[in-house]
Amino acid sequence: MLGLTSPYILIAMENIPTVRGAAQAYGLTFTPGTWVESIQITKGAGSVVNGYESIAGQINAELQKPTKDDKLFVNLYGASSQRFELNTHYNTKVSDRWSTGVYLHGNTHQEKHDVNHDNFLDMPLYNQVNVMNRWQYTDTENGFVGFLNVRYLNDEKQTGELDFDPDTDKLTNNAWGSEIETERYDFSGKFGYVNPELPWRSAGLQFAISNHQQNSYFGLRTYNIEHSSIYSNFTYNSIISDSRRKIKTGVSFTYDKYDELVETTSFNRIDNSIGAFFEYNFDDLEDINVTAGLRVDNHNRLGVFITPRIHAKYTPWEKSAFRASIGRGKRSANIFAENQNLFATSRNIIINSSAEGNIYGLDPEIAWNYGVSYLQGFNLFGKKADITFDFYRTDFQNQVVVDWENSQEISFYNLENESFANSFQTEFNYNPFTGFNTRLAYKYYDIKTKYQTGKKIKPLTAQHRFFANASYETPVKNNSKWKFDVTYNWLGKQRFPSTQNNPIEFQLPNFSPNVNTVNAQVTKVFSPKFEIYIGGENITNVRQNSPILGADNPFGPNFDSTFVYGPIFGSLYYAGLRFSIK
């Protein structure tokens, strides 16, 4: 988002930060799509209510509610790569106020593919089992609602050479291979109260306890991490004078215990913080909406600091919206969990510690984000259309620089010079006739960091991107209809980190080629209870033929699997069905 990777985005589940710490690399794959009821995305500085860590934006996923979800839902999926997936939901009402749901997700892929014949798997072998039990309490008469979630996840991945056998080759030079085994337990809940007589007064409590354990190795390198976390947040909502002036205030607490083993070195630490926040919203219900927030946190490693954020929306005329935001973010960089691809190389790992750094010997990251956007709706040939322009800039006061510019090492150090990320996007939506929707978008990134070898654009990030989507739904006839969807993605050239120190046969050009991909899906809805779908990803069969440097000698000094800029496997086709009982 805004040209920055997921560590700079606060990714939450029901407004509880979830994809963070040890879950940073793979956490997005741990929430199945069928479990999600809706997603809210905020670019730039988000609300202070959810914490101080977000810098580029916030993504929040709301889960299915047992009282609103189907009583039974089944989704089966199979792909030409021999990936198979099952999703089932079962919801039932236990009493007048209690309902519960059991959600099961499983996926597996056990077929070895090597389309480019480099003796390495084109995609991992994996198994995942993901189970959640969700309880909902509703007492509308007295103004209470609550949710409790208990979840267990087991995820196993294997990558490496085709003939790698974990039973005989693990952590040996018989064959290069990697396994990543993750086990995670979550217990979370949220409770809300709305005063039945004064509905503008409400209070809410959120809490989450989790344990995330990953045991992994990459060739001869071991990486293990255990992350135990506690999160709680209490909020109170009311108004000042009238409903145009709303306030939200509260306190939050976080506790994180990390135990990491990087090859033979242990990195253990405990982070905890307590904070208070206040947010004021003015909405004249016509033209202006302004939200100003401030939070103060006391962190055992980051110290006492203030996080200010402001959002404003102005509607100058019909079907328009002008938005602006500014805010500050601060975070601890978990350099190994966030950059696990470094272990699948022969590079030496170097940490250039700062004098005062106490997180891997490094200082925390601090950045300001500024953004403006403009939306205008209009009629085009009598049909609805809209166009959006937005620009965001992130300025780092301090950043943990991940430096890949020496092909024999990866260095972590604190920013000593300028680092910024500019993001510009324009989007056009048009509905030319009933059931047919189109979307076009162009995005430009200007992201530069002053490395030890000079100022350079961010590697393996396309500066220019283009997206086009068209979807069509036929009119419903006898409870039946068709749905069609086609998406085109274009990525411009991407800069490779320098390989000039390598022997000439292991040197790459400065930039990658452009990448074009097309995805399509057709769905036949037979009734509100049953539908089937077929589709294809990358149907033009675009492939990166040699993604791994030194693949013929993975234990040699030039082995590097981090230069991936596009698809490796090629075309993939799939089919599935959805069945539900309301």
Structure notes:
The chain is mainly β. The protein has one domain: Maltoporin, Chain A. It has one helix spanning 166-169, and strands spanning 9-13, 16-17, 36-43, 57-63, 72-79, 83-93, 98-109, 125-139, 144-160, 177-194, 202-218, 221-240, 242-262, 265-283, 288-299, 303-314, 320-331, 348-352, 365-380, 383-398, 400-403, 409-414, 419-433, 436-451, 454-457, 464-473, 481-491, 515-527, 530-537, 572-581. The strands form three sheets. It has a 22-stranded antiparallel barrel. 31% of the residues are buried.
Q: How many structural units, i.e. domains?
A: 1
What composes the largest sheet?
Answer: 22 strands, antiparallel, barrel
Give me the oligomer status: single chain
- What Rg is obtained from the alpha carbons, in whole angstroms? 25 Å
Unreliable spans are none
Morphology call: globular
Strand content: over 45%
List the total number of helices.
1
Which CATH class is shown? Mainly Beta
How far the N terminus sits from the C terminus, by CA atoms, comes to 36 Å
